[in-house]
Amino acid sequence: MTAYVLVSRSAEFETRLRGLLGERLSVVPGEFLTFGPEAVMDRVPEDTRVALLGPVLNYEETKGLVEALTARHRGLGVIVVREQRSDLEDWVDELELHAVLSPEASDETTMGLLDRLAMWLIANGRADEHDFDAPLALEIDDMPFIESARLDAESALVSVATVSDSNDVEVATDPDVPEWEFPPIQAGSPTDAIAVIAPKGGQGKTTIAINLATGLAEVAPNSVVLVDADLQFGDITAALSLSPTRTIVDAVDEAATDELVLKTTLTHHEDGFFVVASAPSPELGDRVSPLSLARLIDQLRASFRYVVVDTTPGLGEHTLIALEHVTDAIFVTNMGVPSLRAMRTEFEILTKLGLMPSNRHIVVNQTDKNSGLSIRDVENIIGAPIDVEVPKSSAVLLASNRGVPLIHDDVRDPAARAIRSIVLRIAPEAFPKRSKIQRRRRSNEPE
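The structure corresponding to this sequence follows.
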Protein backbone atom coordinates (compact mmCIF):
# COMPACT_ATOMS: atom_id res chain seq x y z
CA MET A 1 0.00 0.00 0.00
CA THR A 2 1.22 3.50 -0.87
CA ALA A 3 -0.91 5.30 1.69
CA TYR A 4 1.23 8.44 1.58
CA VAL A 5 2.17 10.68 -1.32
CA LEU A 6 4.72 13.50 -1.20
CA VAL A 7 4.77 16.36 -3.72
CA SER A 8 7.94 18.35 -3.12
CA ARG A 9 11.00 19.97 -4.63
CA SER A 10 13.20 19.15 -1.64
CA ALA A 11 15.36 16.08 -2.30
CA GLU A 12 16.55 16.24 1.30
CA PHE A 13 13.05 16.08 2.79
CA GLU A 14 12.10 13.34 0.32
CA THR A 15 15.06 11.23 1.41
CA ARG A 16 14.20 11.66 5.08
CA LEU A 17 10.54 10.79 4.56
CA ARG A 18 11.43 7.72 2.50
CA GLY A 19 13.54 6.57 5.41
CA LEU A 20 10.53 6.90 7.72
CA LEU A 21 7.80 5.45 5.50
CA GLY A 22 9.63 3.17 3.10
CA GLU A 23 7.39 1.57 0.47
CA ARG A 24 4.31 3.22 1.96
CA LEU A 25 5.42 6.50 0.34
CA SER A 26 4.96 7.53 -3.26
CA VAL A 27 6.81 10.66 -4.46
CA VAL A 28 5.85 13.05 -7.25
CA PRO A 29 8.61 15.58 -8.00
CA GLY A 30 7.39 19.16 -7.76
CA GLU A 31 8.81 19.84 -11.22
CA PHE A 32 5.66 18.22 -12.68
CA LEU A 33 3.73 21.27 -11.45
CA THR A 34 5.23 23.14 -14.40
CA PHE A 35 2.54 21.39 -16.44
CA GLY A 36 -0.22 22.07 -13.92
CA PRO A 37 -1.86 20.08 -11.08
CA GLU A 38 -3.27 17.46 -13.47
CA ALA A 39 0.26 16.35 -14.36
CA VAL A 40 0.73 15.55 -10.67
CA MET A 41 -2.68 13.93 -10.28
CA ASP A 42 -1.90 11.39 -13.00
CA ARG A 43 0.96 10.15 -10.80
CA VAL A 44 -0.89 9.94 -7.46
CA PRO A 45 -1.81 6.31 -6.65
CA GLU A 46 -5.48 5.53 -6.17
CA ASP A 47 -4.89 4.05 -2.71
CA THR A 48 -3.40 7.30 -1.35
CA ARG A 49 -4.83 8.33 2.02
CA VAL A 50 -2.52 11.18 3.10
CA ALA A 51 -0.88 13.83 0.90
CA LEU A 52 2.12 15.87 2.06
CA LEU A 53 2.65 19.01 0.00
CA GLY A 54 6.03 20.76 0.19
CA PRO A 55 8.47 22.05 1.10
CA VAL A 56 9.43 24.50 -1.67
CA LEU A 57 5.94 24.81 -3.15
CA ASN A 58 4.37 28.26 -3.47
CA TYR A 59 0.81 29.19 -2.50
CA GLU A 60 -0.71 28.93 -5.99
CA GLU A 61 0.85 25.51 -6.57
CA THR A 62 -0.33 24.26 -3.19
CA LYS A 63 -3.84 25.62 -3.68
CA GLY A 64 -4.15 23.96 -7.08
CA LEU A 65 -2.97 20.66 -5.63
CA VAL A 66 -5.30 20.77 -2.64
CA GLU A 67 -8.32 21.44 -4.88
CA ALA A 68 -7.39 18.74 -7.38
CA LEU A 69 -6.52 16.14 -4.76
CA THR A 70 -9.61 16.61 -2.60
CA ALA A 71 -11.84 16.53 -5.68
CA ARG A 72 -10.42 13.24 -6.93
CA HIS A 73 -9.64 11.55 -3.58
CA ARG A 74 -12.56 12.10 -1.23
CA GLY A 75 -11.62 12.03 2.44
CA LEU A 76 -7.92 12.53 1.77
CA GLY A 77 -5.78 13.80 4.66
CA VAL A 78 -3.76 16.88 3.61
CA ILE A 79 -0.59 18.15 5.28
CA VAL A 80 1.37 21.21 4.17
CA VAL A 81 5.10 20.98 4.85
CA ARG A 82 6.19 24.53 5.47
CA GLU A 83 7.90 26.69 8.08
CA GLN A 84 6.04 29.30 10.13
CA ARG A 85 5.97 32.57 8.17
CA SER A 86 3.85 35.70 8.30
CA ASP A 87 1.56 34.49 5.53
CA LEU A 88 0.99 30.98 6.90
CA GLU A 89 -2.26 32.02 8.57
CA ASP A 90 -3.69 32.84 5.15
CA TRP A 91 -2.68 29.42 3.85
CA VAL A 92 -4.51 27.61 6.64
CA ASP A 93 -7.56 29.88 6.48
CA GLU A 94 -8.00 29.51 2.73
CA LEU A 95 -6.97 25.91 2.07
CA GLU A 96 -8.63 22.68 3.23
CA LEU A 97 -5.78 21.36 5.35
CA HIS A 98 -5.55 19.00 8.29
CA ALA A 99 -2.10 19.93 9.58
CA VAL A 100 1.04 21.97 9.04
CA LEU A 101 4.39 20.26 9.48
CA SER A 102 7.75 22.00 9.68
CA PRO A 103 10.44 20.45 7.45
CA GLU A 104 12.70 20.81 10.49
CA ALA A 105 10.44 18.70 12.75
CA SER A 106 12.14 15.68 14.28
CA ASP A 107 11.46 12.16 12.98
CA GLU A 108 9.51 11.41 16.17
CA THR A 109 7.31 14.47 15.74
CA THR A 110 6.75 13.75 12.05
CA MET A 111 5.72 10.14 12.64
CA GLY A 112 3.56 11.16 15.58
CA LEU A 113 1.59 13.54 13.36
CA LEU A 114 1.22 11.00 10.55
CA ASP A 115 0.03 8.30 12.95
CA ARG A 116 -2.50 10.62 14.61
CA LEU A 117 -3.91 11.75 11.28
CA ALA A 118 -4.14 8.14 10.12
CA MET A 119 -6.09 7.22 13.26
CA TRP A 120 -8.44 10.13 12.74
CA LEU A 121 -9.11 9.07 9.14
CA ILE A 122 -9.84 5.54 10.32
CA ALA A 123 -12.13 6.73 13.12
CA ASN A 124 -14.14 8.86 10.68
CA GLY A 125 -14.56 6.14 8.09
CA ARG A 126 -12.21 7.70 5.57
CA ALA A 127 -9.73 4.82 5.66
CA ASP A 128 -9.27 1.30 6.94
CA GLU A 129 -6.51 0.31 9.31
CA HIS A 130 -4.96 -2.03 6.74
CA ASP A 131 -4.61 0.94 4.33
CA PHE A 132 -1.57 2.11 6.26
CA ASP A 133 0.00 -1.35 6.52
CA ALA A 134 1.72 -0.59 9.82
CA PRO A 135 0.83 -0.53 13.55
CA LEU A 136 -0.52 2.83 14.60
CA ALA A 137 0.84 4.25 17.81
CA LEU A 138 -2.16 6.17 19.21
CA GLU A 139 -5.66 5.25 20.31
CA ILE A 140 -8.69 6.69 18.51
CA ASP A 141 -9.93 8.26 21.73
CA ASP A 142 -6.78 10.41 21.77
CA MET A 143 -7.59 12.02 18.40
CA PRO A 144 -9.56 15.30 18.69
CA PHE A 145 -9.22 16.08 14.94
CA ILE A 146 -11.88 17.88 12.94
CA GLU A 147 -11.89 18.58 9.22
CA SER A 148 -11.18 22.31 9.08
CA ALA A 149 -8.21 24.20 10.53
CA ARG A 150 -7.38 27.73 11.59
CA LEU A 151 -3.86 28.69 12.60
CA ASP A 152 -3.37 30.44 15.91
CA ALA A 153 -1.70 33.70 14.86
CA GLU A 154 0.00 34.02 18.24
CA SER A 155 1.93 30.78 17.75
CA ALA A 156 5.51 31.14 16.58
CA LEU A 157 7.98 28.69 15.06
CA VAL A 158 5.36 25.99 14.50
CA SER A 159 6.63 22.46 14.07
CA VAL A 160 3.33 20.66 13.91
CA ALA A 161 -0.19 22.06 13.81
CA THR A 162 -3.08 19.68 14.55
CA VAL A 163 -6.79 20.34 14.47
CA SER A 164 -8.87 20.56 17.64
CA ASP A 165 -12.60 20.56 18.47
CA SER A 166 -12.58 24.35 19.00
CA ASN A 167 -11.60 25.05 15.37
CA ASP A 168 -8.27 26.41 16.64
CA VAL A 169 -5.03 24.73 15.71
CA GLU A 170 -3.19 23.16 18.59
CA VAL A 171 0.55 23.70 18.35
CA ALA A 172 2.70 20.73 19.32
CA THR A 173 6.12 22.32 19.82
CA ASP A 174 9.11 20.29 18.72
CA PRO A 175 11.99 20.59 21.22
CA ASP A 176 14.38 20.85 18.25
CA VAL A 177 12.82 24.10 17.03
CA PRO A 178 15.06 27.08 17.88
CA GLU A 179 13.83 30.10 19.79
CA TRP A 180 15.74 32.67 17.69
CA GLU A 181 14.33 34.46 14.70
CA PHE A 182 15.90 35.96 11.59
CA PRO A 183 15.80 39.78 11.75
CA PRO A 184 14.43 41.22 8.49
CA ILE A 185 16.74 43.16 6.18
CA GLN A 186 15.17 46.48 5.25
CA ALA A 187 14.97 47.23 1.54
CA GLY A 188 17.95 49.30 0.48
CA SER A 189 19.96 48.53 3.62
CA PRO A 190 23.66 47.85 2.98
CA THR A 191 24.97 44.35 3.44
CA ASP A 192 28.64 43.42 3.65
CA ALA A 193 30.43 40.22 2.68
CA ILE A 194 33.96 39.64 3.91
CA ALA A 195 36.30 36.95 2.58
CA VAL A 196 39.09 35.76 4.88
CA ILE A 197 42.05 34.59 2.80
CA ALA A 198 45.47 33.06 3.48
CA PRO A 199 48.22 31.97 1.09
CA LYS A 200 48.81 28.73 3.01
CA GLY A 201 47.18 26.64 5.70
CA GLY A 202 48.04 27.17 9.37
CA GLN A 203 48.03 30.98 9.25
CA GLY A 204 45.11 31.38 11.69
CA LYS A 205 42.60 32.28 8.99
CA THR A 206 39.76 30.31 10.56
CA THR A 207 40.37 31.85 13.99
CA ILE A 208 40.11 35.32 12.45
CA ALA A 209 36.91 34.39 10.60
CA ILE A 210 35.24 32.94 13.71
CA ASN A 211 36.04 35.93 15.89
CA LEU A 212 35.06 38.39 13.17
CA ALA A 213 31.62 36.78 12.94
CA THR A 214 31.37 36.80 16.75
CA GLY A 215 32.21 40.50 17.01
CA LEU A 216 29.87 41.50 14.20
CA ALA A 217 27.03 39.57 15.85
CA GLU A 218 27.27 41.92 18.83
CA VAL A 219 25.97 44.77 16.66
CA ALA A 220 23.82 42.64 14.34
CA PRO A 221 22.46 39.74 16.42
CA ASN A 222 21.28 36.80 14.29
CA SER A 223 22.06 38.78 11.14
CA VAL A 224 25.58 37.42 10.67
CA VAL A 225 26.39 34.18 8.84
CA LEU A 226 29.79 32.50 8.73
CA VAL A 227 30.38 30.33 5.66
CA ASP A 228 32.99 27.58 5.93
CA ALA A 229 34.06 27.51 2.29
CA ASP A 230 37.21 25.50 3.00
CA LEU A 231 35.69 22.61 1.08
CA GLN A 232 38.46 20.11 1.75
CA PHE A 233 39.20 20.38 5.46
CA GLY A 234 37.00 23.10 6.93
CA ASP A 235 36.85 22.89 10.72
CA ILE A 236 34.76 25.83 11.91
CA THR A 237 32.09 23.64 13.50
CA ALA A 238 34.78 21.67 15.36
CA ALA A 239 36.36 24.89 16.62
CA LEU A 240 32.94 26.06 17.85
CA SER A 241 31.79 22.69 19.26
CA LEU A 242 28.82 22.63 16.90
CA SER A 243 27.11 19.51 15.55
CA PRO A 244 25.50 20.54 12.26
CA THR A 245 22.84 18.40 10.63
CA ARG A 246 23.28 20.14 7.26
CA THR A 247 26.28 21.54 5.43
CA ILE A 248 27.29 23.72 2.51
CA VAL A 249 26.46 20.81 0.23
CA ASP A 250 22.80 21.23 1.23
CA ALA A 251 23.05 25.03 1.10
CA VAL A 252 24.00 25.01 -2.59
CA ASP A 253 21.42 22.38 -3.53
CA GLU A 254 18.84 23.52 -6.06
CA ALA A 255 16.09 23.32 -3.45
CA ALA A 256 17.97 25.86 -1.30
CA THR A 257 17.42 28.60 -3.86
CA ASP A 258 14.26 29.10 -1.81
CA GLU A 259 15.15 31.38 1.13
CA LEU A 260 13.15 29.27 3.56
CA VAL A 261 14.94 26.07 2.60
CA LEU A 262 18.34 27.79 2.69
CA LYS A 263 17.79 28.91 6.28
CA THR A 264 17.12 25.32 7.33
CA THR A 265 20.69 24.45 6.31
CA LEU A 266 22.21 26.88 8.82
CA THR A 267 23.53 26.03 12.28
CA HIS A 268 22.98 28.59 15.03
CA HIS A 269 25.68 29.55 17.52
CA GLU A 270 24.76 30.81 20.97
CA ASP A 271 26.71 34.05 20.42
CA GLY A 272 24.12 35.18 17.90
CA PHE A 273 25.41 34.16 14.49
CA PHE A 274 24.82 31.35 12.01
CA VAL A 275 27.23 28.92 10.39
CA VAL A 276 27.15 27.22 7.01
CA ALA A 277 29.16 24.10 7.87
CA SER A 278 31.84 22.81 5.52
CA ALA A 279 31.39 19.67 3.47
CA PRO A 280 31.64 16.54 5.66
CA SER A 281 34.31 15.08 3.33
CA PRO A 282 36.55 16.27 0.48
CA GLU A 283 34.57 14.07 -1.91
CA LEU A 284 31.31 15.82 -1.04
CA GLY A 285 33.12 19.15 -1.15
CA ASP A 286 33.82 18.52 -4.83
CA ARG A 287 30.08 18.83 -5.44
CA VAL A 288 30.19 22.53 -4.55
CA SER A 289 31.09 24.34 -7.75
CA PRO A 290 32.62 27.84 -7.76
CA LEU A 291 29.46 29.25 -9.35
CA SER A 292 27.24 27.67 -6.68
CA LEU A 293 29.44 29.22 -3.96
CA ALA A 294 29.07 32.63 -5.63
CA ARG A 295 25.30 32.18 -5.79
CA LEU A 296 25.23 31.19 -2.11
CA ILE A 297 27.13 34.33 -1.07
CA ASP A 298 24.76 36.55 -3.04
CA GLN A 299 21.73 34.76 -1.63
CA LEU A 300 22.96 35.11 1.95
CA ARG A 301 23.65 38.81 1.44
CA ALA A 302 19.96 39.23 0.67
CA SER A 303 19.05 37.90 4.14
CA PHE A 304 21.94 38.84 6.45
CA ARG A 305 23.68 42.10 7.37
CA TYR A 306 27.11 40.46 7.35
CA VAL A 307 28.39 37.40 5.48
CA VAL A 308 31.84 36.14 6.50
CA VAL A 309 33.46 33.61 4.15
CA ASP A 310 36.34 31.45 5.38
CA THR A 311 38.05 30.33 2.17
CA THR A 312 40.29 27.47 1.13
CA PRO A 313 43.99 28.40 1.49
CA GLY A 314 45.59 29.69 -1.71
CA LEU A 315 43.93 31.13 -4.79
CA GLY A 316 41.84 28.31 -6.14
CA GLU A 317 38.73 28.82 -8.24
CA HIS A 318 36.43 29.01 -5.23
CA THR A 319 38.53 31.69 -3.54
CA LEU A 320 38.80 33.74 -6.74
CA ILE A 321 35.08 33.71 -7.39
CA ALA A 322 34.38 34.53 -3.73
CA LEU A 323 36.50 37.67 -4.16
CA GLU A 324 34.22 38.75 -6.99
CA HIS A 325 31.20 38.63 -4.67
CA VAL A 326 32.45 40.27 -1.46
CA THR A 327 32.88 43.86 -0.32
CA ASP A 328 35.97 43.28 1.84
CA ALA A 329 38.88 40.86 2.01
CA ILE A 330 41.04 40.10 5.03
CA PHE A 331 44.42 38.64 4.08
CA VAL A 332 46.06 36.63 6.86
CA THR A 333 49.68 35.53 7.07
CA ASN A 334 52.20 34.70 9.75
CA MET A 335 55.80 35.95 9.95
CA GLY A 336 57.30 33.02 8.08
CA VAL A 337 59.18 34.12 4.97
CA PRO A 338 57.58 31.45 2.73
CA SER A 339 54.09 32.64 3.76
CA LEU A 340 55.01 36.30 3.25
CA ARG A 341 56.38 35.64 -0.21
CA ALA A 342 53.30 33.62 -1.08
CA MET A 343 51.11 36.53 -0.03
CA ARG A 344 53.12 38.92 -2.22
CA THR A 345 52.57 36.53 -5.13
CA GLU A 346 48.83 36.46 -4.35
CA PHE A 347 48.69 40.25 -4.46
CA GLU A 348 50.46 40.34 -7.79
CA ILE A 349 48.09 37.75 -9.27
CA LEU A 350 44.97 39.47 -7.95
CA THR A 351 46.13 42.84 -9.23
CA LYS A 352 46.79 41.37 -12.67
CA LEU A 353 43.33 39.74 -12.70
CA GLY A 354 41.65 42.89 -11.46
CA LEU A 355 40.33 41.07 -8.39
CA MET A 356 42.11 42.98 -5.64
CA PRO A 357 39.30 44.26 -3.37
CA SER A 358 39.23 47.98 -2.72
CA ASN A 359 38.57 47.27 0.96
CA ARG A 360 41.66 45.23 1.75
CA HIS A 361 42.81 44.46 5.28
CA ILE A 362 46.21 42.83 5.88
CA VAL A 363 46.66 40.91 9.13
CA VAL A 364 49.97 39.49 10.34
CA ASN A 365 49.09 36.74 12.78
CA GLN A 366 51.15 35.18 15.56
CA THR A 367 53.69 38.00 15.59
CA ASP A 368 56.74 37.31 17.73
CA LYS A 369 59.65 39.64 18.47
CA ASN A 370 61.92 36.59 18.42
CA SER A 371 61.01 35.66 14.85
CA GLY A 372 64.02 37.45 13.40
CA LEU A 373 61.80 39.82 11.38
CA SER A 374 60.35 43.21 12.20
CA ILE A 375 57.02 44.50 10.92
CA ARG A 376 58.96 46.75 8.54
CA ASP A 377 60.68 43.63 7.15
CA VAL A 378 57.28 42.02 6.71
CA GLU A 379 55.95 45.05 4.82
CA ASN A 380 59.00 45.08 2.56
CA ILE A 381 58.54 41.41 1.68
CA ILE A 382 54.83 41.58 0.85
CA GLY A 383 55.06 45.07 -0.63
CA ALA A 384 52.16 46.53 1.33
CA PRO A 385 51.53 48.11 4.75
CA ILE A 386 50.24 45.97 7.60
CA ASP A 387 46.86 46.91 9.07
CA VAL A 388 46.69 44.68 12.14
CA GLU A 389 49.29 42.74 14.13
CA VAL A 390 47.97 39.83 16.19
CA PRO A 391 50.57 38.71 18.77
CA LYS A 392 51.28 35.08 19.43
CA SER A 393 49.20 33.86 22.38
CA SER A 394 48.42 30.55 24.06
CA ALA A 395 44.89 31.90 24.69
CA VAL A 396 44.07 31.29 21.01
CA LEU A 397 44.62 27.55 21.30
CA LEU A 398 42.88 27.38 24.67
CA ALA A 399 39.78 29.09 23.32
CA SER A 400 39.71 26.82 20.27
CA ASN A 401 40.01 23.70 22.42
CA ARG A 402 37.16 24.97 24.59
CA GLY A 403 34.99 25.68 21.53
CA VAL A 404 34.63 29.37 22.46
CA PRO A 405 35.47 32.43 20.30
CA LEU A 406 38.59 34.10 21.68
CA ILE A 407 37.11 37.60 21.98
CA HIS A 408 34.44 36.18 24.28
CA ASP A 409 36.78 33.87 26.16
CA ASP A 410 39.55 36.19 27.32
CA VAL A 411 38.76 39.82 26.53
CA ARG A 412 42.02 41.06 28.10
CA ASP A 413 44.32 38.87 26.06
CA PRO A 414 46.49 40.91 23.62
CA ALA A 415 45.54 38.64 20.72
CA ALA A 416 41.85 39.11 21.52
CA ARG A 417 42.28 42.88 21.56
CA ALA A 418 44.08 42.82 18.23
CA ILE A 419 41.35 40.68 16.65
CA ARG A 420 38.76 43.07 18.06
CA SER A 421 40.45 45.83 16.06
CA ILE A 422 39.79 43.78 12.89
CA VAL A 423 36.10 43.71 13.80
CA LEU A 424 36.14 47.48 14.30
CA ARG A 425 37.57 47.98 10.81
CA ILE A 426 34.42 46.36 9.41
CA ALA A 427 31.92 47.70 11.96
CA PRO A 428 33.28 50.71 13.90
CA GLU A 429 30.33 50.50 16.30
CA ALA A 430 31.34 47.02 17.53
CA PHE A 431 32.96 48.11 20.77
CA PRO A 432 33.08 45.30 23.36
CA LYS A 433 30.56 45.25 26.19
CA ARG A 434 32.88 43.92 28.86
CA SER A 435 30.31 42.72 31.41
CA LYS A 436 28.32 40.88 28.76
CA ILE A 437 31.44 39.16 27.43
CA GLN A 438 32.55 38.06 30.88
CA ARG A 439 29.14 36.59 31.62
CA ARG A 440 29.31 34.61 28.41
CA ARG A 441 32.70 33.32 29.32
CA ARG A 442 31.52 32.05 32.69
CA SER A 443 28.51 30.39 31.07
CA ASN A 444 30.92 28.33 28.96
CA GLU A 445 33.09 27.24 31.87
CA PRO A 446 32.91 23.51 32.61
CA GLU A 447 30.73 22.58 35.57
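The mean pLDDT is 82.
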